[in-house]
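Below is a filled-in request sheet from our internal design queue. Each sheet records the structural input a requester submitted and the sequence that came back. We keep these sheets so that new team members can see what a complete request looks like end to end.

REQUESTER: design group, bay 2
PRIORITY: normal
MODE: inverse folding
CHAIN LENGTH: 212
BACKBONE (tokenized):
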């Protein structure tokens, strides 16, 4: 699905990332690497396969786009250090020609040393790119003439079918001055959003992007 944002073409990917071809940049939010192992160490039975899914999707996006920059909009890693961080490092080493950059989120509590080990740039609150402001949490007020791209909320919309059946699916949300990306991670919840009339919503369903 290709859309236009502030005069720029953006491709929305079914892996739940956004590809800015002109900038050769991929944006994604809320991967929550390490979450599975974090829960398993706490004695909570969680299928380890979700770890592989996150890594496979990340590699797929980078191979498909051949991006020169990958910007994570927060919550790249879920909690304190565990071995999943080294998986991120191995992916980083494989894509040496791509700059890995992170706008820190509330779950990104690793030490600076860990980011430096994997040659990853990081930003404390925001990253400004021309008329875009990249943050983890949605900005309460966006300055006039600028547009906020963020994550954090794990947006989803409720779809209803015949027989009172319903399902909540992840989505991309584009408002007048703010876009919220879906959670890239495969082991994350959804927060149902209620779009306004002028908002643009794109739902991810069975590896397809569908305009809502």
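RETURNED SEQUENCE:
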């Amino acid at each position: 699905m290709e859309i236009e944002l502030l005069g720029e073409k953006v491709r929305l990917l079914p892996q739940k990332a956004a590809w800015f071809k002109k900038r050769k940049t991929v944006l994604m939010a809320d991967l929550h690497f390490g979450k599975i192992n974090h829960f398993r160490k706490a004695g909570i039975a969680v299928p380890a396969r979700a770890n592989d899914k996150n890594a496979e999707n990340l590699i797929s996006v980078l191979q498909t786009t051949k991006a020169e920059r990958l910007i994570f909009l927060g919550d790249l890693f879920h909690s304190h250090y565990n071995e999943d961080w080294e998986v991120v490092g191995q992916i980083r080493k494989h894509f040496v020609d791509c700059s890995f950059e992170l706008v820190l989120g509330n779950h990104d509590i690793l030490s600076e040393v860990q980011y430096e080990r994997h040659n990853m740039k990081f930003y404390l609150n925001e990253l400004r790119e021309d008329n875009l402001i990249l943050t983890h949490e949605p900005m309460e007020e966006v300055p006039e003439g600028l547009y906020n791209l963020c994550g954090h909320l794990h947006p989803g919309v409720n779809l209803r079918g015949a027989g009172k059946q319903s399902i909540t699916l992840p989505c991309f949300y584009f408002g007048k001055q703010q876009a919220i990306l879906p959670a890239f991670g495969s082991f994350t919840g959804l927060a149902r959003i209620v779009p306004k009339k002028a908002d643009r919503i794109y739902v991810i369903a069975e590896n397809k992007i569908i305009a809502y």
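SHEET NOTES:
- The longest strand covers residues 166-174.
- Residues 64 and 205 are 20 Å apart (CA to CA).
FILED BY: M.R.
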